[in-house]
Specification:
Layout: E1 3-21, E2 24-38, E3 41-47, H1 57-71, H2 78-84, H3 89-106, H4 110-114, E4 122-123, E5 126-128, H5 133-142, E6 148-152, H6 158-168, E7 173-177, H7 184-196, E8 199-203, E9 223-225, H8 235-238, E10 244-247, H9 249-252, H10 255-267, E11 271-274, H11 281-284, H12 287-290, E12 296-297, H13 301-304, E13 315-316, E14 319-320
Parallel strand pairs: 5-6, 6-7, 7-8, 8-9, 9-10, 10-11, 11-12
Antiparallel strand pairs: 1-2, 2-3, 4-14, 13-14
Helix pairs in contact: 1-3, 5-6
Length: 329
């Protein structure tokens, strides 16, 4: 039976509050929604085209249409897809939709299709976005019941902002994300104070194109690659520079490569973080399989939605439960 596109459209989901990082602010989550069919069975997924990686909604849509045309006569398509599209948002949407479709065709859940154990409920961070220190302290107080908080930072008042969050959430584990905003000199000056404040991970402090400065750098806090690590092809370069890698499906190009990257990173002794772009429960659901056993999990997208998909993921006491089969897999 021929694989076909039923729906391919941009969708907007308003956020409960402004989401600010070092690159700017957002009030909504803009996602690309894909629904595929083969015969009478459908599968769906979403991805987030990211301009920082040279993607637009138009370019990603064009990639998806070309890929589906190339896959039209395949029985499954997930293996073939890895050679048709590069890693990125387009391949993520198609790959995850094919996973969902295959699950529904075969009457399997997605972990069964992958030959893996049923995912346990997964502890996710909640993000404290970049703002004035006093505002960040207030946000931390409101989220102080969360076991792990992820702090968005730029290069300004780094220690002051983290100290403000720590005062608002004295018992939470803290991880920080600089989104490539720091210099080697700034990193060297703040790492010890951050360790003293109980920070347990620093995510992508330096620009990906200039992270060679991390080779030989002895950090009191583990450093995690985000923008520097997309697929297994990046591990040779990242391994001497980072102690951890952040796996996001929109970077790997879907669940297929994400699982392979997680296995390869573990084999090298690297720690794992599983993250996300700012999306709905549909974007988070496939990543739950990758998140099993990860050191840090950042799948808090649904917590930021003022309106999510139905059915949505259940997040109770910061633990993300299994998706309903109608949502994914």
């Amino acid at each position: 039976m021929t694989l076909r596109i039923d729906t391919l459209e941009q969708q907007s989901f308003p956020l409960r509050s402004v989401f600010t990082i070092s690159r700017g602010s957002r009030t909504s989550s803009e996602v690309l929604y894909l629904r595929l069919s083969r015969g009478s069975v459908t599968g769906h997924a979403e991805s987030v085209p990211y301009r920082h990686y040279g993607e637009t909604f138009e370019s990603v849509e064009a990639q998806i249409r070309a890929a589906i045309a190339a896959l039209a006569g395949t029985d499954d398509g997930r293996d073939e897809l890895q050679h048709i599209l590069p890693a990125g948002a387009a391949r993520n949407a198609v790959d995850c939709a094919l996973w969902d479709l295959a699950c529904k065709e075969r009457g399997l859940r997605f972990w069964e299709l992958a030959g893996r154990a049923c995912p346990a409920p997964t502890l996710t961070v909640e993000t404290v976005v970049l703002a004035e220190p006093e505002s960040m302290r207030g946000a931390a107080e409101a989220a102080a019941h969360r076991p792990v908080l992820k702090i968005k930072l730029d290069a300004d008042r780094v220690v002051e902002r983290v100290r403000a969050v720590r005062s608002g959430a004295p018992d939470s584990q803290l991880v920080v994300d600089a989104n490539e905003a720091w210099t080697p000199e700034l990193l060297a000056s703040v790492v010890e104070p951050l360790a003293a404040l109980g920070v347990t991970m620093i995510e992508q402090p330096l620009p990906a194109a200039a992270d060679e400065a991390l080779e030989g750098f002895r950090s009191a806090v583990p450093i995690c690659a985000d923008e520097s690590c997309h697929t297994r092809a990046d591990l040779d370069r990242c391994a001497p520079r980072y102690g951890m890698v952040n796996i996001k499906l929109d970077k790997t190009g879907g669940l297929t490569e994400a699982l392979a990257l997680a296995d390869a990173a573990r084999a090298r002794g690297l720690g794992l973080m599983v993250g996300c772009m700012l999306g709905t429960s549909l974007a988070m659901a496939p990543a739950l399989l990758v998140a099993q056993g990860a050191d840090v999990v950042d799948l808090d997208g649904p917590l930021w939605m003022s309106r999510d998909r139905e059915p949505s993921l259940r997040i109770e006491d910061s633990r993300v439960g299994l998706p309903d089969p109608a949502l994914f897999g």
